[in-house]
Amino acid sequence: MLPAAEPIREIAGLTPRDLGPEILESTEPLLLRGLVGSWPMVAAARRSGAEADTYLRRFYRGATVAAMLGAPEIAGRFFYNEDLSGFNFAPVQVRLDKVLLELERYRGKEVQPAIYVGSTTIDTCLPGFHDENVVDLGGRDALGSIWIGNRTRIAAHYDLPDNLACVVAGRRRFTLFPPQQVGNLYIGPLDFTPAGQAISLVDFHAPDPERFPRFATAMAHAQAAELEAGDALFIPSMWWHHIEALEDFNVLVNYWWRQSPGYMDTPTNALMHALMTVRDLPLEQRKAWQELFRHYVFEADENTAAHIPPTARRILAPLDEDAVRNIRAQLLKRMNR
Description:
globular; RmlC-like_jellyroll; Cupin-like domain-containing protein; JmjC_dom
């Protein structure tokens, strides 16, 4: 039997205007019980799914959204096909009101297709929603998105930004893992993914101990919580999270932001470049490059370039937007030779 996940640390009594650095810069997950319970969207959802549906339609102006549709046989689990050559669902571009009609059509039925609208920018799709449903993120440049669907399962994955996920209709169960558990989660392809992020290949409803024996170790480090409408979860950058929607109509609003300047590139590009240039070197050469990365990247501090005159440090000096632009131009020139 797999170990049970530990409960996520819970904080109650906060309002959407009480989020300071101790919350929004935490390096551990935090369950913020009732954080957005005062939102009009949550009030509508607590009355009924139909009222939540009606509330969303107030802001809708006809935009299309990216949706994923799966047959009832996938049991809500959006994933690969059997040999990982494709996926078990169909991506479609569709009007949001059509999706809401389909969710209403199947509500309460035992057999349902899997319906999921993911990562849709709220200000584009539902202009005005944020005017009534407000959260104070302390001036952070956050992207607000909405996620809508029925009983779906999203495989464990990580996101680069910090994440405040607010359940505003239905219920969701989150299972989180620290970044150090990557080797025990059996991650699939990095460059061919269901929705942009690499995912765990483990079926959390039926984990295969022979194929994925180290998953038990991951579960020994897992944290989990079930959220109702009005609850929020802070997910730190790079924490793996598996999400299961538990009702026929579920809506989540989330906010992503980075603790780094916007001109910084995504580290995923560095990982891909390292796979192309470093991974297949002879062992001793990989060790040499590991030492260079340790010195210049992972353990860099004020002493790393202290022996170089400040005016001559160039790429080893603190970076700004102009410096990053020059580095990017040099990299593109080298890669296009």
